Amino acid sequence: MTINTNDLVNIIAAQEPARRPMSLYIAAFGLAVLCAILTIQILGVRPDWPMPFSGLVKTLFLGAAAAISGYMLHRQSKPLAPPINVLPLLLSVPFLFMVYLGYEWMDFNQSQIAAQFPWANFFSCVKHTFIYGAAGIVALTFLMRQFAPANATAAAQWIGLCAAFTGGLGYSLHCPFDSPTFIVFAYGLPVLALILAARFTVPYFIKW
Amino acid sequence: MAKTQTPSKLELELKELVMQTRAGDKAAYALLLKTVVPLARRGAMTHLSRFNRASYAEDVTQDVLLAIHLKMHTYDASMPFLAWLNVVLKHKAIDFLRRNKVALTSLDDFEFWEPANEDNPEQTVIERDVKSLLGRLKPPAGDIIRDMKIDGYSLKELSTKYNMSESNIKVIVHRGLQKLADEMQKETAA
User: Fold this and answer.
1) Which residues contact B164 (CB under 8 A, 6 or more apart)?
2) Is the pLDDT of residue B185 over 70?
3) Interchain CB contacts (distance < 8 Å): A and B
């Protein structure tokens, strides 16, 4: 120890405490908008624009997942968050999606579902969601460094999840395939990969 | 209707200083830091002494002060300030121990530290004994009673935190306190 605590207090007290940075929730929203703009400018909107009802449902699911993960990221950014039961919120989107998926499997046979699963689009979806998500992870990590997550690993996982869903949401404006089964794999795989990538790389950078 | 626990005088004082600091009052900020120093020092000594590192309490105290300066914007005004400070202190103490390669058996081994009651030093000893007694109750009764009676959580907050109805919480607190009273009577008789 090279400085006296009283001297440190005097030095710190002479300055203002660090200002509140941009909210992670707003940053996540900004990422989604940016991904949407990039998609429209570079890839173009989906060929069947304006999107049919199934496309709207897909966008809503991805949007809800992005919003919820953005909210959880916001909660994770503090050492102490208000005690709220978040379980209903966290389970709502997966539950509704499972109902949607079940509806597809009850209404269509396997070959009809397989026809909604073109491999070229599948790989394009995985690639672009992953690229958007990876860039989102970098951006959110830089921002999270200004906060104080009580649990760096949990915060890293939520960064991965949030970045992945905002990237997927942006890309969904280009992707014309709305089958729930397609969504599970084409968006689910990059989401999973990004959560794992964030979980094992980000904690080091957001320790405080 | 059950009464909500009122925050302690120290908690109210600190919260007021934080609000004034956020409004740009530098004098309030200086007073806040000076008030926090003995609390942080005592808490750091409590945590570090369990690992024979009490001599480094001043280092951890300074880490806490820096964390307050850099991260005070993460304090949510709807929560008790002392609880926020406690989490920051715990975080810095664990960080210090890890940096110095001290083995931590479990993060759950870090008990909550309560600041000493400056007006009544005997209260500190009493609160320590109460904590030890609460540990004898079947979980989560001890945690619920500590949250309500020491940390000042309301019935509604406890109901959300433990995912139980308010009447259930009241029953658990009542039975827990009854059991503690019985145990203390037995000890006195012995």
Assistant:
1) B158, B172
2) no
3) 89
User: CA–CA separation, B48 vs A26, rounded Å?
Assistant: 39
Task: Quote the DSSP letter at residue A39.
Answer: I
Q: If you write DSSP's letter for every residue of A155-208 in order, what string do you get?
A: HHHHHHHHHHHHHHHHHTTT-----HHHHHHHTHHHHHHHHHHHHHHSHHHH--
Q: What are A199's two structure tokens?
A: 């979980």
Q: For residue B70, what is the nearest residue in chain A, using CA coordinates?
A: A18
pLDDT in tens, A54-92: 899 999 999 999 999 999 999 999 998 888 888 888 889
Q: How far apart are CA B82 and CA A27, in angstroms?
A: 29
B13 with B39: CB under 8 angstroms? no
pLDDT of res. B103: 65
Q: Higher model confidence: residue B182 or residue B84?
A: B84
Report the residue of B71, B92, B100 to disrupt the A interface, i.e. the one with the largest count of A CBs within 10 Å.
B71
Average pLDDT on B106-121 reads: 49
Q: Which token pair is B121?
A: 């030093």
Q: Is A144 helix (H, G, I), strand (E, B) or coil?
A: helix
Question: HSE on the CB side for A98, CA within 13 Å?
Answer: 5
Q: Do A208 and B34 touch (CB under 8 A)?
A: no
* Residue type present at position A147: F
**Residue B131: which of B119, B120, B143 has the closest Cα?**
B143
Q: Would you state the structure tokens that stand for residue B3, as one six-digit string?
A: 């009464």
Which pair of structure tokens corresponds to residue B32?
């806040």
Place of tokens 């300074």: B62
As a whole number of angstroms, the distance between CA A184 and CA B139 comes to 40
Cα–Cα separations (whole angstroms), residue B187 to B96, B135, B160: 40, 16, 35
